[in-house]
Amino acid sequence: MFKKNSYRKRAINVVLLVILLLLLLRACSIGDKQQMTEGKNDSSMALSSQAGPDLVKESAPPAPPLAEKEESSSLDPETTEPPAGVTPQSPEPGQTQGPAARTEPAETKAHDGSGKSLPAVALAEMPKGTVATPATETPVVQQETVQANVSEELTETFTEPITGIKFVLVRGGCYPMGTDQEQVFEGPLHEVCVDDFYLSKYEVTQRQWLNLMGRTQSNFYFQGKSRPVEWVNWGEAQDFIRTLNRRSERTYRLPTEAEWEYAARSGGQDEKYAGTNDKEFLEDFAWYRVNSNGQTRFIGMKKPNRLGLHDMSGNVREWCSDWYAEDYYNISPRENPQGPDSGEYRVIRGGAWGLPKGLARTTYRDAAKPNQRRNDIGFRLALSAK
User: Fold this and answer.
1) Beta strand 317-323 pairing with 377-378
2) How many angstroms separate the CA atoms of 29 and 41, rounded?
3) Which is deepest, 82, 294, 356, 386, by most CB within 10 Å?
4) What is the 3-class SS of 31-70, one letter each residue?
5) What is the pLDDT of residue 111?
6) Which one-letter DSSP state was computed for residue 28?
7) pLDDT for residue 286 is more than 70
8) Gap between the Cα atoms of 61 and 385, Å rounded
C-alpha cells in the first residue's frame, strides 16, 4: 500500500513538473513574439526617420525616387511650389568624362547605371534644406553684337503650344569663342559668328516630356515634373525633337556648341559664368555641388543671364548637336560652325548639380557617347530664326 501511494505521488509530481515546463515554454514564446514585433516596428520607424532627398547611389542602378508634391502644379515655374527649405527667386520680366583629359578635382563620383563609378561628376551630401541666396531681379538686356544679323520683325519671346516650352530670341553676332586661359581643349580663342536663333528659356522638364511623349521616363533619377529631364541620351533627346516636329509647324533642334556658348555668355559677352563674372555670386545663378543638396532642382529658381536664360551654368548639363573633337577650334569655320562631320562623342555643355564651380564656366567643353545616359545630363531646344 505504501509503495502504491509513493508511486502515485511521484507520478503526480512528474505531471505537475511537465505542466510547469509547458507553461514556462509558452510564456517564453509569447515574449519572443512581442520582442520580434517591437523590433520590426522599431526598424520601420528607423527607416522612415532616415528617409531624405533622393541622392545618387554608387553601388546600384537607380530606382525611381518618390514623386514630389509639385506634381500637379502648373507648367510655369513662376507658379510652382518650391521644395521645402528653398526660397525661389523672382523670375525676370518679359562631366561625363569625354576623350580629353580633365584636371579638375572630383572628390566623389556619380554613376551611369552600370554599377561603375564615373570620374567627371562629383556628389556632395549637403545638409537638407539648403536655402537659395535671395536675389534681386536681373534685367534682361539684348546684347549689341558685332555684325549682328538682326531681323526687327522677329518676336522676342514665344511659347510652343504643344509642350508649353518658352523660347527667347538670341540676336546673332560675332564673338571670341573659347579661352586661352583654362584647359587646352577650351581653346584656342577664335572668332565665331552665329545667326539669329531662339533658345528655350529653361531646360526641358519632365512635365514637358510627358505632355509631348504621353509617358514619363520611369528612369528619371530625380522624379518631379518641374525638374529638368535627365537620364536621357542624345538619341532620346532627338526622339523628343522628332516627335515635336511632326506635330509642329516649326523645326526644332538642339543648339550647336557655338550657339550654346554665345547664348550662355548673354550674346557673346565676356562672362565666365552664365550671368556673372564673379564666382562669389555664382550661387545666385546656378545649382552646383555646393548648393544643390545632391540633386537636380526645379527649373527657373535661380537668376537668369542677361538674355533671360536660366540654369545655363548649373542644374544639369546639356546635349548639343555637334560631334566632339578636342582640337576642333583649330579648324572651326567662322560662320555658324556645326562641329566635326563625325566622331565618337557628342558635345555636352554647362555646369551641373554635382560639379564644382570651376566646371560651371561658359567656355568649359565636355562630351559623352550618344547612347550614354547620366543623371546630370539633360537638354534644351533651339530654333533657327530664319
Assistant:
1) parallel
2) 19
3) 294
4) HHHHHHHHHHHHHHHHHHHHCCCCCCCCCCCCCCCCCCHH
5) 38
6) H
7) yes
8) 41
Three-state DSSP class for 10? Answer: helix
Cβ–Cβ < 8 Å for 376, 354? yes
CB 73 within 8 A of CB 225: yes
User: Cell 540654369, residue?
Assistant: 311
Listed residue (265, 124, 296) closest to 199, CA to CA: 265
| pLDDT beyond 90 at 235 | yes
Per the CB < 8 A criterion, the answer to whether 295 and 249 are in contact is: no
Distance CA 253, CA 262 (A): 16
Instruction: Give, rounded to a whole angstrom, the gap between the first and last alpha carbons of the chain.
Output: 123
What count of other Cβ atoms lies within 10 Å of the Cβ of residue 349? 23
The set of residues, in sequence order, having a beta carbon less than 8 Å from that of 88 and lying 6+ positions away, is 77, 82, 132, 298, 300, 301
Helix (H, G, I), strand (E, B) or coil at 357: helix
DSSP 268: T
pLDDT at 11: 78
CA distance 191 to 189: 7
34-51 burial by CB neighbour count: b if 16+ within 10 A, else e? eeeeeeeeeeeeeeeeee
- CA neighbor of 225 nearest in space, from 74, 88, 120, 359: 74
Note if the bond before 304 is cis, omega within 30 degrees.
Answer: no
322: closest CA among 313, 332, 314? 332
Computed over every residue of the chain, the mean pLDDT equals: 76
Give the pLDDT of residue 292. Answer: 97
Q: Which residues contact 146 (CB under 8 A, 6 or more apart)?
A: 173, 174, 175
Instruction: Give the C-alpha separation, 114 to 58, whole Å.
Output: 9
